[in-house]
Specification:
Elements (H helix, E strand, L loop, with lengths): L4 E4 L29 H4 L3 E2 L5 E2 L10 H7 L4 E3 L10 H9 L3 E6 L13 H11 L12 E6 L3 H4 L3 H18 L7 E3 L2 E2 L10 H11 L7 H4 E2 L2 E3 L3 H5 L9 H9 L3 E6 L8 H18 L4 E6 L20 E12 L17 E9 L1 H10 L3
Parallel strand pairs: 1-4, 1-12, 4-5, 5-6, 6-7, 7-9, 8-10, 10-11, 11-12
Antiparallel strand pairs: 2-3, 13-14
Amino acid sequence: MTNFNGICYQPFPPGYDPSSANTTCIFFGSDIAYDPMAPIWGDAYTSSTGSSCDLSGPNKARNDIQTLAGMGVQLIRLYDWEPRNNHLKFLNYCNDHNIKVLVPVSNYFVKPDQGLKDMNTLIPKLIDSFSNENKSDYHSAVAGIIIGNEPEVNGFSAQNCIDFTTAWAKIEDQQYSGYREVQIGHPVDFGKYGGAYPCFGFWDPLLGALNAVTTKNLNKRLFLAPQTYNGDDYLFVNAESSGRGYVDLAYDKYQKPILFTEIGYGRSNAGYQTFVQGQIAGCITYHSQNPDKLIGICFFQFADKVWLDSGSSEATFGTFSHAGGTMCTIKYGDGDFTHWDHGSCNNDSMTVDTLSATPLHDIVVKNYKPD
């Protein structure tokens, strides 16, 4: 994985809320990367009802991928992925802009009361959806696979991840033996899980088990995926008064490359610009000196979470905020979708909103795309 400069991407427009997404067609599964979402990430879309947007007419596509490429972003981290949806156009479009993708296994698939019990049926569907058009290999835009997100917050365990990831390698070996061996990580919130340092108490059982799985070289493909909002001093100089930086401590113990699947700091915090500059520049400097230890960062995030109150600190991490204007409104029909979980989709619509750069945008660009 050589695409270091990453960003977290879930820029849903007004109307999206994770608590009600699965009652709609367009937002079902919180999947930003499939075809009907092209008005947001792409340059054009025409729905089955004839509703359309592009870059030249009055109804404008937002073309986020082009914007990301212009920012110097080389890697997109996604959160949710519905394998029944079509994603080939998104992956191709990322390739066209020299951007690679961390494709996600949504929390649904690793939760014991949801998809985990059906993993042997669902994993092939996920692998197929991460594949190229010929279903002969993982798509060339796929830089890695990330399984789940923040287990302590979202109600699944290290053992659930062990079971799922072990099954993944077994199914790859049996049904997809010709596929390349892409790297695999498990994004973990920065809690200690009973360990000496953040994430250590989760990684101890996870890697204790998965390091023994040699099927499809799984043990050699794993990377650590911590999610941090700590500063450069903690990460690279002095974690927990140890006299050593967190990245060195984690690498020395687990001997696995590290990719921060989230790193950032909200604009509601005093001194946030200096803090974020230290984070990103510190990571880039460390990577230049230790390219095998820290292999990437995904800045959190491209755009503010639209479903949160604008005064909430959780809504202030974006390099863009939602500006309130309308670029286009797409009206969908049943023909735009591959599944209809709540009946007809003929009344679904999505309004693509305008974005406005925040001060975090310039900090990211300064570091990701230096003069």
